[in-house]
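debug: dumping io for the single-chain case to check the tokenizer round-trip. Nothing else runs in this session.
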Amino acid sequence: MKTKTLLLGLILMVGLFAFNSCEKDDDPSPLTQEEAVVAIDNSEEQFIVASNDIAANAGYKVQDQLDGMYLPFGSSYKSNSTLKFRDADIKQFKQKATEFFKANKGGEDLNFDFDFIFNMTDANFQNYTGTWDWSGSYFVKTGTTPANEIILNFPYPSSNATNNATLRYHSYQLSNSSISFKGSITVDKAEVLSFSLSATFSETKMSGTLKVNFGSYEMLFTESWTSSTTSYVASASTTLQKDGKALYKESTKVTLKRVSDTDVSVVVEAKLIISSLEFRMKLSFKLSELQTIETKDPNTYLQMSLYSTDGAKIGDFKYKYNSTNKEWDIYFVYTNGVEVNVETEMPRIASRLLDFFSGLFDNIG
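debug: decoded output
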């Protein structure tokens, strides 16, 4: 993982996202190097098992099929900006989880676009109320009831002879400062997935949440921000959990404060949880320093550590200058002082970190 790539990602995400890092009191004793290696390997294996389990889930499979179907209020292309109020886009959060699953070489390549949910935020709900049936290549409106819901009947799997599955939208509310609605998917009258979305917004603040449940899994996406003439604070989180236990979670928080008429301080804090591993990061700088920050030792403004989710420290990340390549390489330092090159000795960790940071700024804009 190269310093320039990491730093660019962090800089570009400032102004919209940041990480929320919580330090624990009374942390357990640090792990030995041997224990740390086991923890890292186990975390990867747990996540591979989870991704394969999700791929086999009926709720996951039916929403994946819906993503390829042309909805009455959808579009034939993937929208880059759907739930976007006052320059805040909730859809970006679920893309982080999508990118992580697609980077998981040992498990299934999962699709969490949820366009059938997000496209509704752009639609005029009342124009589509009633019942719609799949005709073989598109939905046809076959009834005007229910007057306050949208019912889409379709075949699942797609080769099924009858429209045995139903996508339902209901409880839709829209005002000048809020939007909310709920929905579900049933197959042969049995519910396999449910979802709810809500957001409030004004000139100075925004808050939004999307929750999707299927089987024993829940995906939760949140975003909020507040602004004033002297500061801006934004937070975001993405969580995948099974039976109430987090398998993947990233939370972000950025704070910008005016320190003079020409300068702003930036504090970025971060947490990323993958199964039993927890990455913590903190970045602090002033905007006036951006022109020269890449010429400085990254260890002076960026701190990253790795813990187990029960609080036991595994080690720290540090940078060393590579005079041959003329760039900073990232190393991992176990609690016993042993150092290893992250890219060569811990390629899976390097891949996760790179996907994490690059995914953040790739989806901005």
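debug: round-trip ok. The radius of gyration is 23 Å.
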